[in-house]
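Lay summary

Proteins are chains of building blocks that fold into shapes. Our project writes down both the chain and a compact code for its shape. Here are two examples, one after the other.
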Amino acid sequence: MISMPRTALAAAALLAMATIAQAQNPPAPNGAASAPAGAASAPAPRAPADPTAPKPFAEVIKGAKEQPGLFPIWRKDEKVWIEIPKEQFNKPFLFSVNVANAVGERGLYASQMLGDELAEWRRVGNHIQLIALNTKFRADAGGSKLAVEQGFSPSLITAGPAASAEHPDRKSVLVDASGLLLADIPGYSTRLEMAYRLPYGPDRSNSFIEATRADAQVSTLTARVHFATPRIPAPPLTPTPVPMPSPPQATPDPRSMFFSFVYSLRALPETPAAVRHADPRLGHFTENYSNLGDDLKANPRVHMVARWRLEKKDPAAALSEPVQPIVYWLDKNIPAKYRQAVMAGVLEWNKAFEKIGFKDAVVAKQQPDDADWDDMDSTHASIRWFTGADVGFAIGPSNRDPRTGEILDADIGMSDVFGRGSRRLAADDVPPAQALGAWMGERSQQQLAEQQCSYMADQAHELGFALDLLALRDGMDMNGPEAEALAQAVVKDVVMHEVGHTLGLKHNFRASSTVTQAQLRDKAYTETHGISNSVMDYNAYNLPLKGEPRASLTNTTLGAYDYWAIEYAYKPIAPEQEAAELARIAARSTEPQLAYGDDIDQGVGGPYDGFDPRTNQRDLGDDPLAYARKRLKLSQELWERVQTRPASVGDDPLRNRRSIAEGFRQLGMTANNVAKYVGGLYAERVVPGVSSGPAFKPVDNAQQREALRFIASGLLSSNSFKFSPEFLATQPVDYVDWDRGLPLSIPDAVAALQGRVLDRLMSPNTARRLIEQGSYLPEAQRKGAVSLSEVYGTLQGAIFSELKTGGEIDRMRRSLQREYLRRLQAQLNRSTNAATVYADAFSMARYHASQLAADLRTASARPGLSVETKAHLAELQDLLGSMLKATLTRS
């Protein structure tokens, strides 16, 4: 038996007595205490107040000012509350986030759309949650919506306690906006870590709600959020194998930075828009989901065209104004000198809408310079100008109703390089150049995010190349009216492209290949039809060779494809006729001028490296090979003229360096396009049962061999890159700047360019296609096909031609040969390539490597070679011998 302390026993006895008394006298209803029998009635004591219960609504907002709207906003000093009516709980709306202010470097820029979600408010007791609904999986018909809801979770955006009790009349509650929105809702701590590899986080104590606005359709709150890190770590004592990014360079203190996030809570249309389904023969952005309600379809994916709701005021009229036009607001931060060009780029799209019966479907409005409202909320489609220390792109994203694909908002961001960039390249007013290799044809990989594109940055670079060449060739005044007109045309072209994105159109990188070389030289044709059949391509400049007539240099109007894509997405069609009419429109895809290829077709890396040489960025005309030869001649002409350009007082010391770099940049964008011919496949968008013909067809043998010859005799030849020693010796660095760069190195620039060609021709993907291309040809056509052995042999023979001729190997050629061996070593690495390279490709690479080893031994024995060439050949022999021995090792 366990003894119990006396005090514990007494407590137990008292508890037992109390329990008996409670059983004899149960509590009265509603918690009122029962009076003992026979006792006189007395007022019941007041229950103690619950300290955790929300305060009355009126008490919380006493002295606050209301902004009525979808979700009314109350403000008092620094305090901000969102009012949520009872009927708005569990009712979906669109929640979107934009960033209005940022740090201006490494992808962290202002005036950017960050995303949107279908969201709803939920209440759990006195806890308020903002929930992102899962729209990726649905049960449209025949299936169990409950099963889908149980199978796929929503996500929590933010949450907080109710700040008030329910209003007795308004039947609504308050929630503290600061508690909800000053957290890291956009996930910027991860973005910051990606950019700087430092642990930044939101600092609530120094963050606040800086602006609010509300109306019946939307409630908008802008949160000024401070991100900070406790310390910047000291750099390592020894360099790391992988270079680490530097801390922030664009902020006064790299430990601290502010972002302004614009949160919009927008009501969805009460009547959902009509859905229009996508067709693979045209390029539209889509809203996608898996329909798990239909288990008879093999593919449950549904693709709804992204488009604005556009309805005629007079449905019976051949040409009618829309009930609600698509309105773009030109932000007041766009410099006045560019506003007309921006507006012209917007309004150009009305030509396409007029073809399908809409008058003034697209409207452009200028935000007044004294406007006190921001166009970053989700009810103003806008075009905004933003700046950055390292920025050079435009973007045309949109927010959509996930139920239907209806576009509800769009904010085009144009970095100032599309205006200032054109000027700075023309006037040589740029930040100090980095090492020359960073300029040589390098392009960021096409972003897989839908509407991100680098068209504007490339246009700015091409404008610099064009103005430089025309000024040196024809004496064009960089500050004259002709240069001004061209710069304005570039602005219009870029705006047309980005507005096309916000109308729902994807890139079409095949459009430029459907205009003939003769048409490109015809001024009347290019002024009427443009230089490409779509503004959604990355169109190169239509620069003539010396002595050729000059037509339009850049795109000035919509192309045939643009009209067709708008017709499919926006043409008013009676529901009972829609399927047949859309099929008729899409069936026109076989017309040459409507050819279409998207980002994946062009190549985005990995297995999707782009194998159709007609689908490219930055080519022009129906003969990409001819365009490549022309680009080389234009670059060579620019280099020749730059070398004879006299220096003037006040010249930037890096002026000639940038001109040379632009020539290499143009070739860098061309090199990969030419190499796509080798082992290339023509791809057609065949729809089973609807269209006919081969989906894939190997590129003609003659064209593959022509591309190989151009690569060997042009891009891999030292003779293509001639610069006088006297010129190179007189090119200074910028001694004022800390990062002044190094002396100009043409061999390094050539190596970067040639490396792109080698990467393509020696890639596993190219080897695979060369081996398999016979599978797509009838037996009779396989004889004489370009083989992997022919490609490797041609490439190796061109790169090591001195081994046969007995000539000296100059600095550029030595660099090229080392780059070739470096890639050959990767091909012969059995352990890393076992999963990516065919055994046939491995054995073919090894066979040619053995041939090369024999040629190196023979060449090394020749007398009279310079020490540099002998040393180089000895190095190659040693490296190649080690590579061949290593591949014989068996695990």
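And here is the second example, written the same way.
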Amino acid sequence: MKKILIAFMLLVGIQHALAQEEIPRISISFTNVDVLDALQSIESKTAYRFYYLDAWLENIKVSGSYQDTQVSLILDDLFKNTVLNFYITEDNRIFLLQNNQIYESLPEDFFGKKDAVADDGPSYDDIQDLGPLFVNAEDSGVSRGMQVVKIGKENRNNRKRAFTLNGKVTNARTGQPIPDLAIIVEGKDLGTSTNANGNYSLELPVGENIIRTQGLGIQDSRTKVILYSNGVYNFDLNESVEALDEVVVQGNLDRNVETAITGVTLIEVEKIKNIPLVLGERDILKAAITLPGITTAGEGAAGYNVRGGRTDQNLILLDNGVIYNPSHFFGIFSAINPFSTGSAEIYKGNIPAEFGGRLSSVFDITTKDGNTEKFSGEASIGPVTSNIVLETPVVKDKSALLIGGRATYSDWILKALDDEQLNNSTASFFDVVAKYNHTIDDKNEIKATGYFSRDEFSITSDSIFDYSNRLVSLKWDHKFSEKTTGSLIASNSEYRFGIEFDGESNDDFDLGYKNNETEIKLKMKYLHSDKHKFDFGLSSKLYVVDPGDIVPLGGDSEVTSLTIPQEKGLESAVFASDSYEVNDKLLIDIGLRYSFYAALGASSQRIYQENGPKNSGTLVETQDFDKNEVIETYGGPEARVSARYFLAPDFSIKASVNNAYQYIHTLSSNTTVSPTDTWKLSDLNIKPQEAYQGSLGLYKNFGGNTFELSLEGYYKKQTNLLDYKVGAQLLLNEAIETEVIQGDGKAYGVEFLIKKNEGKLNGWLGYTYSRSFVKLDSPFAEERVNNGEFFPSNFDKPHDISLVANYKFTRRFSASANFVYQTGRPVTFPIGSFSFNNSEFVFYSDRNKFRIPDYYRLDLSFNMEGNHKIKKFAHSFWSFSIYNVLGRNNPYSVFFVTEDGDIKAYQSSIFSIPVPTITYNFKF
């Protein structure tokens, strides 16, 4: 039988060769015509007749001009960008074929070679003329519920063992890209995952490959791909109903064990909707503080302390634009709309090399893309706030617009209270966000985001405070080749605050402050091989700070106008990193960032005596700098190195070391973040902050990824931390360097986390033991605090426990609980008093020598989802929650006043009684 087959193939080859000698030459032209019309024109000029299936030729346009050219060469050119091949017989018939081709002969060793297609991956050398690719027609995959697709076409003159398949994975319902989706080739030890834009690239053996996809909240799929050459295949995947079952903050599969970067957490908004939070507001940043290593100075405090770092050491990004004050309503709510947010990736250990300018963490928050298929939205109604987000296609399947808005109507609550001071108070906020995403073609995509938030409040009858955030960002993603992609990002952010004072005295005023920054960044990704994945790029950021101005309010005001001169600084950086897979067990992520900062004029810089404290008595001279003249420069290399080693397939150990520079500082004498905190750029007298951190951790998954366990320790050293002198005047101070001091800091801790991802009972338990210290030492007493010894920082809380649990009674009904315990933060207490000139004065202890009482709180909620019918206008979700069920009077601060000659201590609390809430959400 073998001999008969070979003889037949050789006979066909001889006949074809004879036919080729008689192929006539013709002259013909086509200009953007249907390929079917082109074939009919060839038939009219020759004796050839074409045979094909009509479906193969749909929507194919061709162009070309040919003079005295063989028909075979014309067809080669016409079909070069299609999956069509052709075969010419001796009797002038031309058969069109899709993907494959007809062979006249077989390679000499075709029946004797052992592996036509090797299973151990695409690492073989190119081999010419492997012979025909056979597909088992009886095992099409359809019978097993798999879709079968053919990619590319055969070319006998350039056959390789492996080709590249790439494409994009999107949500079939929303059209949004699906990031971090696992793509696995069954039986071949090959796989990859999608990037943030849903794109993937995979090198596959030629022939049949069964590709399986797996992702959180996405139905698993299996597809048989018959690969003939390089090609593109896009997956449209359906959501899994089981996504509603999840509450757990988690990444995809065993991401926590596999990745090399330490201290990274992925939070998805949909997975936190059952966590009971104050006043029923779903809040992605408040959910973050239930995780180890992230905390706040107190209930209602704005800003976040990450691994013993200050609040100004966190880079909070919304679609690559910076948000300086991420809080609303005295810190009770975050300024990020939960319905418009897709996810947040928080880096608190080894920060990727592309990020810089902050020491402790990066909150990389991404707004979800609008729905390109249909109009949709989500809304909520609560006792204090209402929220709505709408998504609409602009060009179907290509572009969409998302618009969201959130506002409070809290004034009626304040006016209904018995407290006269609060009864006359006002507090309101709103935020709006808009995002436009447009897929131009397979290689280009643009995204634009605009955001604005504003808060206004008055606790006293004579003062109105307001602050606002604004940002715009534009991102262009471009695919240069199968292995190289890039993004060009431009953003502008602005933060303002103001105080309007209108009292009974003649000192009414209007005060304003503004901080603005503009950044442009280019970042590239190059998939060199399975072992090396490079990220590299550059960025530049211009800071413009208006430290404040004050003007009299009204004609009778005795306030003198004052404007503090503007500050400017330029921060630039180049960065590169390589994710290097040394072997199956060891993965190293090594990065280097070099940052450079220049303080710019126009400015007047004060020069002080070199060996003396900075005060008016040691001022030597004032040096003037022209506009954009360089005042001082700082900079240096920043290493970002981490490694992961598998102790077992589901058990890894990770380690990292990194350092960073920060060129902008906050000026505050408050324990917690205040809307009136100002920012100060490094200059001739104030050096940039610098930090070094090392971490080591163990990560274990068990029960088929049902449980995740991690234990990570860290040590952080900081220099040039900016602090304040006793009695410092920080606002509207032209010589601010005389009111502040710079010192050292250190922080260390251990973080423990166990999570249960599935089952009726799920949630997580986190425990952190951490310490944070500051050292302010100087030869001069006025610049020395606590005798120059290390003392606890304002946010030093050794013990922090968080328990989040959700129990599902049915698919629609569930109950949730949230328990928090924290050591009380440090405070400074008066320890004595003395009389002077018939007045009583307080003598205070060393700074932060005492602590306020420990904090603990229990929240409960009952959650009810609407029915799960697919065909209905909207899916609803009710949440009945009680915040602070135990009615614990947790102190927010402790302060002292003198009454009738006696010093009395008082404590203030934010929520000292249980706070019930009913919130209604619906999604359509």
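What can we say about the second shape? The chain has three domains: 2-98, 137-239, 255-923.
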